[in-house]
Amino acid sequence: MRLKTGLSGVFAVALLAAGPAVAADLGYPTEFGAPAAPIAQAPVSFLSEVRLGTFAHDAASPEKGSADLNGEILFAKPFSEPGSPWDFLFPRPSIGATLNFAGKTSQAYAGLTWTYDITKSIFVEGSFGGSVNNGKTGSIVPPGHNAMGCNVSFRESGSVGYRFTANWSLMGTIEHMSNAGLCTQNRGLTNYGARIGYTF
What we know:
Elements: H1 2-17, H2 19-26, E1 47-56, E2 67-75, E3 92-100, E4 107-117, E5 122-133, E6 152-163, E7 168-178, E8 189-199
Antiparallel strand pairs: 1-2, 1-8, 2-3, 3-4, 4-5, 5-6, 6-7, 7-8
């Protein structure tokens, strides 16, 4: 009986002395509470930017004297190296259309766009791709229309822009569309104007 009582006492003293260590060794939490909320992640968007503006329609051609509406969508880069000084070499895919208000040549296009930030606010940009147009392609072209040669062409553009905020920007743009001499006629089309952009 005394042996049991003595062992019980020794065991109790040992537990009191090593209580924190024993609790830690058991692997059970010493404090209970609500589980931490999962970290929210921003949804991944395939859209990068949308743009809208007006152009003077090929001021040096038979189609001069009218205006265009331009709309463009730029998609997120399929490949990117954020933070790298060479990230601008990875282009954004883009699609758009330039629609003439006076029944002259309009076009829809798709291509790749490269943007280089000179400063946080000022940027320059170039794009290259292909386009389809509704211009006059026959051997006899009505007065006031360009002799486009064919309805499928190359398209390139250049822009200089300024970012007012992280979302809004304004840019001056010149675009050119031609078939590079692949068709019998190649008057081409050169428009220029201003656009506003909204970045997502």
